[in-house]
C-alpha cells in the first residue's frame, strides 16, 4: 500500500463516520494507520493492549482508545512524501481577544506574585473558517511538514477530527526503560546562530525538570538527567532536558505513570494544584484534547510513546479550532505572551493553509 492509498482510506472512513488514526513518529520514515472495522467507542481503562490512546487535558473526561485488534492496521514508508515547509500563514487576530488574553496573563502574574507560585500555563483557542475541506489534502499537508515532530490525524465520531505536530514527549517506555523530557522556553527562530536563553527562560525550564523528577523519583530504580539543550520545533526553539531511566514496574503501570506525570508543568504550571485552579477559573474555554496526551501503546505496556498534544487543532468541514498557550512566570510580559501564542498557532496554521 502507498501513503496516498492510506489517505484515501482515511477519507473514506471519515465519510462513513468510522474511527481511525494515522500517525508518524518523530524522525521515523514511516506512517501507520489503524482503521476500525466498525463504528464503536472504546474508552481506555488500562493501557495493556496494542492500541492508540487519546486523553483529554482534564482526565476526569474520558480517554479514547483505538484498539488494533478491532482494526485494519497498515504501515507505509513516508520516503515518497516530499517535504514542503510552507511560509507563514497570515490570519487576523481579534483585538478584544488580545485584550482579554493579556488581562488573563496580567492576572496570572498577580497570582504568582501574591502566592509564591512559580509558573502558570495559560492558553487560548483560535477559530478559522475552512473553505476547502478535504481530508486527503489535510493529510498530505501535515505529513509533508515537521518530520521531527510526532504527527497525527485522529477521527472518531464522538470527538471529530484532531490533528497536530507536537514536539513534546510525555513518556516513552521500552520494557522497563523509560524516557521523558522537560520542555519550556520559547523563541521564534529568525537566525539559528542567534539563539540565546535568558535567566528567566532557564529558570522556568528548570522548574519543569524538577517537577518531573519529583513525580518519577519514587517510581524509578534509575534516573538520568541530561544537559539542557536547544530543541527546534518548526519555526520555534525551546529549551529541553531529557530524563530517562529504569522503571520500578511493580510500583506503577503505564497508565498510572502517565496520569502521574500529566498535567506536567510545561502545560499546567507549578505548583500543579494552584495552576490548575487558575486555569479552570480564568481560561474561558474547554481545552478538550489540547494539552492532553496521545500516542501508541504496546501489548502489555512494553512499548509506548505518549506525546503531549501541542501544536494541534480540531477541524470539521467548515471550521478549524487551533490551540496554543505559554508558561507565565513573574517576569512575563503580557504582549510578548500574546505574540508567543500567535507564533505557536502558526505551526498548525501552516498545515491548514491549503484548506483555507
Ligand atoms: C503550551 C504550549 O507549549 C508549552 C509551553 C512552552 C513555553 O511556555 O515556553 C514551551 C513548550 C511547551 O512545553 C503550547 O504549545 O501550546
Question: What does this protein structure show overall?
Answer:
GO terms for molecular function: isochorismate synthase activity. Its EC number is 5.4.4.2. Belongs to the isochorismate synthase family. Keywords: Isomerase. With 356 residues, the protein is an alpha+beta fold. The chain has a single domain (3-81, 95-355), classed as 4-Layer Sandwich (Anthranilate synthase), CATH 3.60.120. 28% of the residues lie in helices and 35% in strands. A 9-stranded antiparallel sheet has the order 5-2-1-7-8-16-17-6-13. Strands 4-3-14-15-9-10-12-11 form an 8-stranded antiparallel sheet. Helix 1 runs antiparallel to helix 3 and helix 2 packs across helix 7. The longest helix is centred in the first third of the chain and has 21 residues, at 95-115. The radius of gyration is 19 Å and the shape is globular. Residues 121, 123, 168, 183-186, 238, 266-267, 310-311, 324-327, 344 line the site of ligand ISJ.
Question: The CATH topology, please?
Answer: Anthranilate synthase
- Into which percentage range does the β-strand content fall? 25-35%
The counted number of beta strands is: 17
The backbone outline, from C-alpha atoms, is globular
**How many discrete domains?**
1
